[in-house]
Design brief:
The chain has one domain: Orthogonal Bundle (MetI-like fold), CATH 1.10.3720.10. The chain contains eleven helices and no strands. One of its GO terms (biological process) is transmembrane transport. Belongs to the binding-protein-dependent transport system permease family. Its main location: membrane.
């Protein structure tokens, strides 16, 4: 009698080895991702946002900083699909152009967080001992800090009331504030992965052959420990875009003349009843973008972890 599970197992083995050799971790993950509709949906939304940020002129030719007070708070129409804001600016044009600043803050904050956290995590996990103890206790201190409150304190410290810092300076401060408060998560993820990888035979063999710590970490451990950090980075990118909007809404993040979704939401908060379109469209784009990154991160996590398939 034929076992129905045997055919399924045979198909799996054939899929894995049909190119003549077993697929690697990332090749196998890509094979799994291609079969997930949510991956394609989230990837399409993210690609659209990236195009908006890189080439806003493909979507609108209207200057996002142009304002006509005679059109103040006019509702959506054929002339302005998303209506006009309180100053008479085109909400559609500002939403399209606002993707750049919001996405840039998220990307830079994610890069800084992962770079700092992963570096410290590798050092702590590989060397252990007093270095691991010191870095772990420092990360515990930062984990105990309320995230948004900590960012508000940092930004208020660098910007005295009444000051008008440049947009680049404020963006840099927001990125550094997020990185300073968020690095312990990346550090703990990389530390755990490094401790696991350090016990593997290929690392022990590299040490026995005389490879130094730098070579062991870069050539042998990083390729096998970077996967969980990439998953975290994908999810964190969406979260950091939301953090930028939160800080801008509270008045300590980006501010005019910078155009971002957070700045638009902050400007619309006093006109929700009389002009809800000023809030709904940038908030909608923000929500969809954050959701797309979180969904993509979940799909990547499931594809990289065979236990979750």
């Amino acid at each position: 009698m034929t076992d129905p599970n045997a055919a399924t197992a045979g198909e799996t083995v054939q899929a894995v080895t049909r190119e003549g050799r077993p697929r690697g971790l990332f090749a196998d993950a890509w094979y799994e991702l291609r079969r997930r509709p949510m991956f394609w949906l989230s990837a399409t939304l993210i690609l659209l946002v990236l195009l908006m940020a890189a080439f806003p002129q493909l979507f609108t030719s209207v200057d996002p900083n142009y304002a006509d007070l005679s059109r103040s708070r006019q509702p959506p129409s054929g002339e302005a699909w998303f209506g006009y804001d309180n100053q008479g600016g085109d909400v559609y044009a500002r939403t399209i152009h606002g993707a750049r600043a919001s996405l840039l803050v998220g990307l830079l904050a994610t890069a800084a967080t992962v770079l700092l956290g992963a570096t410290l995590g590798v050092l702590a996990g590989y060397h252990g001992g007093w270095l691991d103890t010191v870095l772990s206790r420092i990360s515990d201190i930062f984990v105990g800090l309320p995230f948004v409150l900590g960012a508000i304190v940092i930004l208020y410290t660098f910007n005295t009331p009444g000051s008008t810092p440049s947009g680049v300076r404020v963006m840099t401060q927001v990125v550094l504030s997020i990185a300073v408060l968020a690095w312990p998560v990346a550090m703990r993820i990389m530390r755990s992965a490094t401790i696991t990888a350090k016990q593997q035979d290929y690392v022990k063999a590299a040490r026995a052959l005389g490879a130094g710590p730098g070579r062991v970490i870069v050539r042998h451990m990083l390729p096998n420990t970077v996967a969980p950090v990439l998953v975290y980075a994908t999810i964190a990118l969406g979260a950091f875009i939301g953090v930028e909007a939160t800080l801008s809404f509270l008045g300590v993040g980006l501010r005019p003349p910078v155009v971002s979704w957070g700045v638009m939401i902050s400007a619309a908060k006093d006109y929700i009843r009389v002009a809800p379109h000023m809030l709904l469209f940038p908030a909608g784009f923000l929500t969809l973008t954050v959701l797309a990154f979180v969904t993509l991160g979940d799909a990547v996590r499931e594809a990289l972890d065979p236990k979750l398939r």
